[in-house]
User: Fold this.
Amino acid sequence: MSIDKLTIKKVLGLSALKAKESEIDTLSEQLSSILEHMKALDAVDVTGIKPMFFGIDKDNCSVRADEPVVVERALIKTNALSIVDDLYCVPNIIAGDDE
Amino acid sequence: MSFDILNSNIPTINSAIKDKKISHRELVDFYIKRAKKYSKLNSYINIMEQEALEKVTNMDPDLSANEIIKGIPVSLKDIFLMKGHKTTCASKILSDHVATYDSTVASRLQNKGAVVIGKNNMDEFAMGSSNEHSFYGPALNPWDESRVPGGSSGGSAVSVSAGLCQISYGTDTGGSVRLPASYTGICSLKPTYGRVSRYGVIAFASSLDQPGPMARNIEDLAIAFDAVSGHDPNDSNTSSLPPSNIYKGLKNIEPCTLGVPYELLSDGIDKDVVKCFESSLEIFKKAGYVIKDIKLPHAKHSLDAYYIISTGEASSNLARYDGIRYGYRTSNISGLKDLYENSRSEGFGTEVKRRIALGTFVLSAGYYDAYFVKAAKVRRLIRQDFDNAFSSCSAILLPTAPTTAFKIGEKLADPMTMYLSDVLTVPVNLAAIPAMSIPCGFDSKSLPIGMQIIGKHFDEMTLFNLAYFMQRQRPELFNRVSVK
Assistant:
């Protein structure tokens, strides 16, 4: 199957990604080629087959107690892009307003 | 120091330390010096020299029986979190990210005294078959530096193959420890899904990701696996089985029946690869093993099912990178949508963006049933094929990759051609079974070739014993360092 430029743009929007027009052309070609290869799955009869989202039987798996995990606050803050008065600071995101 | 570290396995090194032929500090210093000397191979993103040397200074040379990995220099793919250390996943978007907790793999290794000497290069977010999709540039194959080492755990494979660490750990979502092991002439294990915890491993495709060890010989591979396997309350998908005890269980086994899906060897596999693989089959036959032609009728659809499932899961997992709380943030911001889109578009590399887009497409309304659900149904058929095959054989043998290491840049322009490198490894991930890659020879260009030994769920012991047999039959292929 081919995937047109309009669909690529919709998919990029859903993915929170941007691309230039030339990149969209390339992506359209590449994804079309990949989806063409995937068409082979159409030939597989899956009537009555249940989808399997994990390859293991989950009977032996257990869920841990839902207890709070304390992580060092100072360490978490080392990854913050901006801290002001001990609070996370994000850019002004309302269009037109000053920082 | 006259002791030959590079050609020794961990038990031999431990004996040398006990006999005071070498100290833990000399061992760690030796590997760090080599890692720095061969930095052009680009196998490390970060070498933790000072911390590693401090850890082994004055380490007691008298090791108890359960301290087999104590003081051993280990490297980790830069996908494993280590508290207080940068963990980048080879991505610009995480290039300044400092881990706030330890992955279970890192904490188990450190609790047992292993010394992490550095974090390895890799394909960004483990998406790739060549290690060319790294923000830090490609790692180079030490057998031929114009060629790729395979991916995505390419840096780990290079660090083992070139003798820049004793053992390493990577992750395998669709072949990412086996493919680079094959291309660089070393051993690796993709354990049964759920045998090694994914806690603290940056997620790519959660139903497929599985950490696995890489080593130059089977003893080291067994020790490396035993050190990290077992249930972890922090990963609800880990099995409740007790930790593995493979190293002590290595032994000669009675010849058994081994399955070979000959139908998968017909198309697109290099002649040299097939020839080498068949010569390995002859070795098994001569020792009394029965080689049986088995059928895996749906395995030919594995690649398509894999790239639907893995990209769908990746699209969801990577939605968390938004430029708000951590990671790269664009300076080009005119609104919230811009902040998200520009941060992600500037922070992710081309291959990651391609896979996110494909994954978003296969999960989107209108295509979900036709692609994602269909692939999940085919996945069940693939697993059933393996279950049926194992009713008549103890393990399955296959080449690891259709070719040997290819030239850097050779497949970058055509993603589908690159994806075909994984055609022989992805069936194992979909079925969640264990598989090992071991060296089985060289092609006409003197590049290493690997073969896979594939087993039943949680039957890693059989794989190790078969590999151990092959190591004794062809010792010249094991414990081989590509850079002297």
